[in-house]
Amino acid sequence: MFEDEGVALRSEPRDKGRSSKTNINRRWYRRVMWLVVCLAMLGYGSLQCHRVVTDYLTYPKKVTIGVGEDMSTEFPAVTVCNLNPLPNRERLRGHPVWGAFVKIEEENLNPKCENLTEQYGKESADPAYGAGTTYGGGDANVGDATDDLNRRKRFAEDTKYSIPKDLTTADLSNDELETKRKRARRQAKDEAQTTRLACGVYYKYFLKMQESKQGPSIAKQSTESCSKDDYKEKLRFNPLCGVEVVCDNFGCFDAHLNVFMETTKFNSNTNTTMVCPSCSKKCWRKKWFDSWAKGKLSPDQVVELFSKSRTPDFSDIMGTFSPSPLDLDDYGVPAKYFIRACSYDQSACSHEQFYGWTSDSYGKCYTYNSAYRKVRIRGSKNTNYPGLATTTSPGSMNGLRLTLNIHADQYLALLSSEVGARVIVHSPHQIPFPEDQGFNVLPGVSVSVSVTKKVIRRVGEPYGNCSNTTSSKRFIRYSSIRCKKQCLEREYWRKCGCRVSMNHDDDIDADDKPERHCSIFNTTQKMCMKMTAYSFHRGRLSCQCPPACLETQYKTQVTASETNRLFYTIVQNMKNTRIADDLCSGSDNGTVRVHIYMDTLAYEEIVETPAYTFSTLLSNVGGNLGLFLGMSIVTMVELTEFLVDIVLLLLSRRRRQKEHQTIADHTLKTQNRTVIKEAGT
Q1: Buried b vs exposed e over 198-207: b needs ≥16 C-beta within 10 Å?
Q2: CB 338 within 8 A of CB 351
Q3: CA pair distance 385, 598, nearest whole angstrom
Q4: Does residue 448 surpass a pLDDT of 90?
Q5: 3-class SS letters over 374-396
Q6: Nearest to 132 by CA among 306, 298, 280
């Protein structure tokens, strides 16, 4: 019995050991399972948090389109310009340049209807220059025109590159001599092309222009730096061919990369020296070239220039003749002769309420409801800005009504192919650019313009790229188009040394602002302007001009109807006031009537806002951590506190160990001293 009990008693520790081992094994599996789960959740949660942060760093934005409505709205500014910048033909008769245009108009009042080609340019002798027609003064042609042109071209080709003299004097057969000449000419041509690609500024520009029109050239662009220190280019303009000519160390070439040569002849019949370029069938008197350089043109010269046009509407020639700022000021039409009648919201207004300024292409322009118009304070010499016009009544019964006298009978016809006025509806806080904005209004009809407003609010950095800051002291509101125009103008100043724009260039505050304007007769300045504009349109200038953060746009809908002349006749007779010039002259070609009104007080609003803010980032990160790891801000604070406690515990334990070690060292030293003292006694 006792033996059995003893056996039972001895067997109990074994059973407890087995159960403890089993529990340990079970706890080990659980730890591994939880470790795998925690690592998986930690990895997937970290991946989700990385995606959330990555999405936030892209700074997305959302666009909201809504409709708002005001009880009273600011009426837009309305700018009107004459399509012809110099409608003053009678005063221009004695002008050194425009006088020739007046004479040509008078000699071509009736259309020529006989001996015309069916297609423009069909009889062109040279596709690079157009047809070589003859105008008056037949002494410009010397001998047979076609044979003389071919002879000059062959002469130019033969003398384009310098050929060693020994090849012309060597004792060789004609075939061998011709072969060597061709080889030398080919080598000289390759050398010239390589040097021009590396050193020539104008040659590379002409080549790019040809490639943009005709496709890539077989000529390879040189990547080598210019090694020819004495290479020089001299630019000039040949008015007979209407083309720029460049002469360098290897010869002369024109803007079409054709060989160019000039020969001189003496005409004994007229006792004049003639200059014969290789690009034309004709010869010009030398004094004509001299008069062109001095800025004086004769009717014959103007006809020659327009005859070289390569477009059916002279659009390639019109840029050559741009009125100077002085001409626009002297021959532009004042506001009181341009704006004949004006009313706003059924109340009278006058030309004195318009702000006048000068456009680059249209000359004198006038703006109604401009924020930049100043008025003189009564009884004082000081000026002030009046308030802007507002309206509470939309619809066709209200708005701005204008009657304009465009002086079509005084048009300088070759300066504009259209008759009428240019109208731009824009923000009162901006000055427009009629070359890029607006629409044309034809005379003889009544034009109605319905206007709706649109407001755009853009978001700035880092979600978007917009600007509200401007360095202008005059224009408070930022404008992207004005920024680009001023950037191009500054580049003209820097590269060409002259001013081009007349449209608010006085707003640019810079120390390097040139005093003089660029001249159309200065070939270097003209070519510099072309090259600079080419770089600007290709995006090669560093112009940082983002869109405005706050922009107000006006959408227009234009309709036209026939004018009731009897109505305006009765008004003029009863009021005994001239309200339109066409009523008495009988011509419908000189008066423009336009009516601009707000269609509704409602407006479209486009608002950009951040689609992913910092609070959204915190919410998403917290949601991922809570979902996959069960963490929250409180948990993170507790975890931080726990880690701090562990660090403090480790530091305190290490400090106690140092203290114990110090006490032990001190005790050991004390014992050693006691032992030494006892040993000495």
Answers
A1: bbbebbbbbb
A2: yes
A3: 24
A4: yes
A5: CEECCCCCCEECCCCCEECCCCC
A6: 280
Q: How confident is the model at residue 671 (pLDDT cuts 50, 70, 90)?
A: confident
Six-digit token string for 240? 């007979």
Pick from 401, 438, 359: which is nearest to 580 by CA? 401
Query: Residue 277, SS3?
Result: strand
Q: Give residues with Cβ within 8 angstroms of 576, minimum separation 6.
A: none
Rg (CA), the chain: 43
**Rounded-to-integer distance, Cα 510 and Cα 505, Å:** 10
Residues 221 and 271: beta-carbon distance below 8 Å: no
Quickly list DSSP for 83-141: SSS---TGGGTT-TTHHHHHHHHHHTSS---SS--SSTTTT-SBTTTB-----S-GGG-
Task: Output the CA–CA distances (angstroms, integers) from residue 595 to 58, 177, 425, 491, 602, in the order listed.
Answer: 48, 79, 12, 40, 20
Whole-model pTM over 0.90: no
Between the alpha carbon of residue 329 and those of residues 326, 420, 567, 672, the distances in Å are 5, 20, 36, 113
Q: What is the pLDDT of residues 502-538, one digit of tens each?
A: 765 556 656 677 888 887 778 888 888 888 988 888 8
Q: Residue 52 corresponds to which tokens in the numbers above?
A: 């959330």
Give whole-number Cα distances, 362 to 324, 325, 436, 438, in Å.
12, 11, 12, 12
Question: How far is it, in rounded angstroms, from Cα 427 to Cα 552?
Answer: 6
Please name the residue ranges forming H helices in 267-413: 286-293, 299-307, 315-318, 325-331, 335-338
**What's the pLDDT score for residue 505?**
55
Q: Are 449 and 556 in contact (CB under 8 A)?
A: yes
Closest CA to 434 of 420, 443, 422: 422
Q: Which of 147, 151, 183, 144 is nearest to 164 (CA)?
A: 183
Q: Can you tell me the distance from the alpha carbon of 483 to that of 19, in angstroms, rounded to the nearest whole number?
A: 86
Q: What is the dihedral of CA 213, 216, 219, 225, to 10 degrees?
A: 90
Judged by DSSP in three states, 319 sits in coil
CA distances to 45, 46, 58, 532, 610 from 51, rounded to whole Å, are 10, 9, 11, 46, 18
> Which structure tokens are listed for 3?
């033996």
The model's pLDDT over 63-113, given as tens digits with 9 standing for 90+, comes to 999 999 988 999 999 999 999 998 888 888 888 888 888 888 888 888 878
What's phi and psi for 93, nearest 5 deg?
A: -60, -40
Measured between alpha carbons, how far is 182 from 622 in angstroms, rounded to an integer?
82
Whose CA is closest to 423, among 436, 439, 412? 439
> Which H or E element spans position 237?
strand 234-238
- Contact call for residues 77 and 477 (beta carbons, < 8 A): no
Domain 73-87+324-607 architecture? Sandwich (2.60)
Q: What is the model's pLDDT at position 367?
A: 95
- Strands annotated E in 415-568: 421-426, 439-441, 445-457, 550-562
Phi/psi of residue 581, each to 5°?
A: -80, -20
Map tokens 């030309």 to a residue. Answer: 351
